[in-house]
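B., you asked whether I could sanity-check this one before it goes into the benchmark set. Here's the sequence:
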Amino acid sequence: MKEILSCLKPYRKQVFAAVLLMMLDVFCEVIQPTLMANIIGERGIGAGNIPYILKIGVLMIAVAIVGLIAGCSNAGVSAKAGVGFSANLREKLFAKVQSFSFRNIDSFSTASLSTRLTNDITQLQNVVTMGMRMMIRAPLMLPFALIMAIGINAQLALILGVSIPALLVLLVLLVWRALPLFRKMQQSVDHLNRTVQENVTNMRVVKSFVRETREKEKFEQASKRQMKASMDAMYAIVLNMPLMMFVMNATIVAVVFFGGRQIVFGTLTVAEMSKFINYILQILFSLMMLAMMFMVLSRASASYQRICEVLDTQPDLADAPDAVSADNLRGQIAFRDVSFRYNTEDRGEPVLSHINLTIEPGQMTAIIGGTGAGKTSLISLIPRLYDVTEGAILLDGRDVRDYRLQTLHEEISVVLQNNTLFSGTIADNLRWGDPEATEDDLVRAAKAAQAHEFIRSFPKGYDTWIEQGGVNVSGGQKQRLCIARALLRHPKILILDDSTSAVDTATEQRLRAAFREQLADTTILLIAQRISSVRDADQIVVMDDGQIVGKGTHEELLASCTAYHEIYQSQQREGATACPAL
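And here's what the prediction gave me:
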């Protein structure tokens, strides 16, 4: 709560102004029944004193105008504080997500994080905006009006001793029933957003498999589920207003009945009766405003808990107190009895088991193996996208956990298996590698990545617009742009996770030649599926079921590693089948 409220701290002046303005508005409203009673009373209508009636009437108009100005001003500063609060909270929440490791992000779905950053924060914004009006107005007006009502007729005010507890009991019951339903409703919004995001992101796959009908049914189910959850929550609070109005009207009837008897017996005047009813209405309306705010709060409490889940999550990757900079790395990598599990609480078989491997600076090491062998998991440990479960990874003889994360990531470029481009120009995407890169730098990196020729073929060249996800370029072009982006960082370690799978053999050969020529001092790790992609590597590592089953050069592995030999033979047969002799 303290961390969330800190987002409102820059708007303390607006909060203070809202309180003062609402106090003025409440004062103007509370005084109106007394002024009206003066007009009705003996000095006004009772005495036929027109000048007095006009005087009090003008005063009532002036007070109403002041109250109107105060109320409008309060609405303005409340809106500013509410919107500013939500903007600050959204930035804090987004910054928290950016600090998460891959393991942290795995615990939240993308759709859920999107909902928390948008819909859930909007719920808290509504609480702040409405709270600075209703939650100030109702607590101020309630005691003032109650004091005035008791001052007029304490005996008649005893009716409130029945109606107020009745309203409070109804309110508590409704909130108790609605709270879990609102939490379920927000979860259904997560599911709906996930369905929409998945469909829109993979629209080309949907259309290529002619699955539009199935996706429509899937969305309809998610939409109906969200509608049902919303209706269940609304049904839980639908009785709020009718019950409140019933209690309110019953209170007025009781006041009129017992007050009328007192008027008949001469213990209460008509003017006092009018004033008392107005104050009773103010009290009851204040209670209704509190009831409405509690309904809003009960819904927002579900959003509050979901936001706190993100803010309270501690990144499992953090710099050690004595962490050192990773500047001037030579690029030596050593795995020392490394084992790894994605879920540290899982006691089953690890994804990687007892890995021992040394890669010398400037060496090109290729990693090959079947699907699920643990290749991507292995290279993800080097830049600390995940931390090892057991053992250690050393860079230049020092544990990677001893380096500062930011400097470590600056020295290591990773081209992941799923290549991602962002909406913007080609130049904008390449400068993710180096924001200060000149046009010559961009061209140099693109040439090394074998991307310059196809970029130049576009009418706008490096200013060509890339749609979100790079959907307007081919898979091979996307891979080469991502490689160029990584090369711009001039890394000491370059990791390529099957990032040339969509590139033809000739282009891949030119890529490897460019790496040899321009990255002679860079340690390169290359994950590939094709033997032709790895046979020229200084060292080839063969993996199977999370273990290293062979390492050496192409010729050494053919002679000594059964798994490598089987991969080689299967690809040779596939190649012969694909290109039969004429």
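One thing to flag: The chain has a mean pLDDT of 83. Otherwise nothing jumped out at me.
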